[in-house]
Every structure is written in C-alpha cells, then in structure tokens.
C-alpha cells in the first residue's frame, strides 16, 4: 500500500484555477463516496479550503493512482485534465506524509503558522471517517498529524504575532489608508473568517461597520458583537451608498459573484467617484474581477495578500524550523508504527504454525504409545510446549527488532519466506476480524504456544 497526496494549492495554482475546484460542504459526502469507489483507492480524505483542494489517498497501485485521481477531479468538476494537470502537485509515500504534517501545522499555508487549517484538516478527516472513507492507516496518520500540530502550536511560537488571511486583509487596508479612524467598512459574509476580520478591524479603531449576509439573523448577531449595522445581500448596493463605505472585505461561500460590474456601475455614480477599496478573501471569488477596471475601484483578491505581513512572518519562519524537527520525529514515529503493523500477523502465523506442529506431533505420539498414563501425557505435553516456546522466543524478539529498522518491510518478507508462512497468513486473512475474540476456548487451548504481543513485549 502507498500514501499519496494530489491537489491544487496557492503555491502553484492561481485563484482563478483554484476556485473551479472547490467542494461545497453539501457535496463532500457524495464526493468522498465516489472517490472511495475509484479503482485502486482504499482510503481517502478530501481537504477543500480557500487556498487548497487536496486529495489524500491510500492506494494499492502507486504508478497509476495519479491518473485515477486526476480523472476523478476532471469528472467531478467537468473540466478536461489538460486544463489543470500542470497546476497539480503530487506527493507520494514519505513526502505525502510529510506534506500532510506540514499542512496541518500551518507550515504550508499562505500565512505561515495560521491555526485555521488545523481545524479544517480535523473536520475533513472526521467527515471522511464518518462516511467510512478511512481505515487503519488514515485513522492513525490523521490523528497523529492533528496531535502533532497542536503540540507545535503549544510548544513553539509559530502561532504568535497574528498573520491569518483576515489579519493580512486588515493589514492591506492599513497600508492603503494608514489607519482606520473614521473609515467605514462593509463585511460581506458572517462566517468565521468574517468574525476574525471584524476583530482585527475593531482592534484597529475602525469607524462604522456594516455586516451583510444571506441569513439576516447571522448578520445581526455578528454586527451586534461590534456595535455595527447589518443588512441582507439584496441591500448591498443601497448600503454602499447610504453608509458611505470606504472598504469592502468579502468572505462568503457563494457559488457566484455577490457584486458584479453591472451592479457596481450605478453605485459608483451615486458615490460621485469616491474611491472604494475592495478585498476579496473568498474562494471561489465573491467580487467580479472586472471591477478592477472601474475608475476609483481598487480590487484585491486572496493572492494579493501573500507577503503583506513579512515582519511577523520572519519570526514565524524561525519557529518553523523547530516545527520541522518535530515533523521529522513524528514521521519516524509513524513509520515505526507502520512497520509494526506487519509484525503481529507474522508472529501470529509463526506461533500458529508451531502450535499445529505441536498438536500433530502429540497426536502421532499418542497413536504410537497408547499405553502412556494421563500424567505421562501431561508431562510430555508440557515439556514439548516449553521447548517450542523457548525456541520461538529469540526469533520473535528478533522479528520485532528487524521490523523496527529502516528495511523492516523487506526483513518481514524474508522471514515469511524463511519460515514458509504465506499459506498461514492467507488463512488468517480470511478469518473474521473478531474471530479470536468471539471464539470460545477449546479443550486444547492449554497446548497452545504462549502469544507474544508484538508491540508491548
């Protein structure tokens, strides 16, 4: 099995490409089920944010998995592969795991060290788990990535000096105006990003605040936190004029533009050419790109925010080096866990083979020596069992040591061949998962070779 990560992110794909590959919250469960049914994909998680759409998958055919995932994206979004293939990033095995750790810790974010991505990865994993799209590998890997990211933020200063996308939008506004005193701001959308943006604006002494949202109650609740005014999406043009708005910051989950060129032309006439700065931090974009061609309208999108807060980022970059070391440690821990996955079945097969040899030998002996007393049989059985247990002890310990090494998988393959365990392993694989738990002890269970826990022993 192999782990791959395939997707588009802000480093390689511009926003006009990324916005075409955004999964809505409503469509994700269906997309996960369809992806899980894709050939060669055994487990999968879809991460869809404003800066990235990435598919993480456990696959059984590394050579062709990229093709299958590209085909899934093309079919789902009805876009020819040739139109986006050059923008894709593909990570495999070790690099895919490292990439997930980096993404979750915020090292791969546009604003390094931001914490919002941690919650987004967590939600993506929990949704995939809920819809049975994950299994043994991803249940372990994503939990480890989330735990590692929390540790990174608590043990380093990677998350200090706020530089989230919303903070960067406010910093851009400050670069434009110097300060927000007496400046009126309209926030379109009432989600988490909008709330964070308003917190930064409020802390910077903004003048009037207007919150617009599709659900009026949410707009009212958010505006109420900052003594602001609220309105519906249908009142945008009216409020831009009446409230004498200086800056618009938009962050919704709308499928189309919330403000178009046609809507804004009469608005700008009524504003008598007063400048309007518009910052679009949504993906897909909320504001019609044609607005940047209008006189006195200054439009910025999420890609324009990169590099806005370099001073704070420098400190985060230094802290990122500490997180990199943590990632390398976690990477090795995952590999150790993964290598031990194969140990249990191999040790179990070896013990089972020894048990069967022991039982067959005892059965043959009793046929040839029918006059043995019960006490003699018990003594022979106990001594022969002890001999086999002692004989197996060192090989089992050695198996665990070898599996923990860098060539653990190859070493286990050699052990399977050396002890001819292939048939035994196939037989075990056909048993129900809870077979050993559900089975009642047999009369000959005291003859069995004592089990050795491959992880704890």
TrEMBL record:
- Sites binding substrate sit at 49-52, 109, 114-116, 120
Q: In which pathway does it act?
A: Porphyrin-containing compound metabolism; protoporphyrin-IX biosynthesis; 5-aminolevulinate from L-glutamyl-tRNA(Glu): step 1/2
Name the segments for region: Disordered. 436-457
Q: Which residues form the Glutamyl-tRNA reductase N-terminal domain?
A: 6-156
List, from the UniProt record, the residues annotated as the active site of this protein.
50
What keywords were assigned to this record?
Answer: NADP, Oxidoreductase, Porphyrin biosynthesis
Concerning Pfam families, the annotation shows:
GlutR_dimer, GlutR_N, Shikimate_DH
Q: Which InterPro entries match?
A: 4pyrrol_synth_GluRdtase, 4pyrrol_synth_GluRdtase_dimer, 4pyrrol_synth_GluRdtase_N, GluRdtase_CS, GluRdtase_dimer_dom_sf, GluRdtase_N_sf, NAD(P)-bd_dom_sf, Shikm_DH/Glu-tRNA_Rdtase
The question of whether Oxidoreductase is a record keyword is answered with yes
Q: What is its EC number?
A: 1.2.1.70
Instruction: Domain (Tetrapyrrole biosynthesis glutamyl-tRNA reductase dimerisation): give its ranges.
Output: 323-421
- Domain Quinate/shikimate 5-dehydrogenase/glutamyl-tRNA reductase, by residue range, is 171-308
**Subunit structure comment from the entry:** Homodimer.
Question: What the record says about its domains?
Answer: Possesses an unusual extended V-shaped dimeric structure with each monomer consisting of three distinct domains arranged along a curved 'spinal' alpha-helix. The N-terminal catalytic domain specifically recognizes the glutamate moiety of the substrate. The second domain is the NADPH-binding domain, and the third C-terminal domain is responsible for dimerization.
Miscellaneous note of the record? During catalysis, the active site Cys acts as a nucleophile attacking the alpha-carbonyl group of tRNA-bound glutamate with the formation of a thioester intermediate between enzyme and glutamate, and the concomitant release of tRNA(Glu). The thioester intermediate is finally reduced by direct hydride transfer from NADPH, to form the product GSA.
What protein family does this chain belong to?
Belongs to the glutamyl-tRNA reductase family.
- Specify the protein name: Glutamyl-tRNA reductase
Which organism is this entry from?
Ferviditalea candida
Q: What is the lineage of its organism?
A: Bacteria, Bacillati, Bacillota, Bacilli, Bacillales
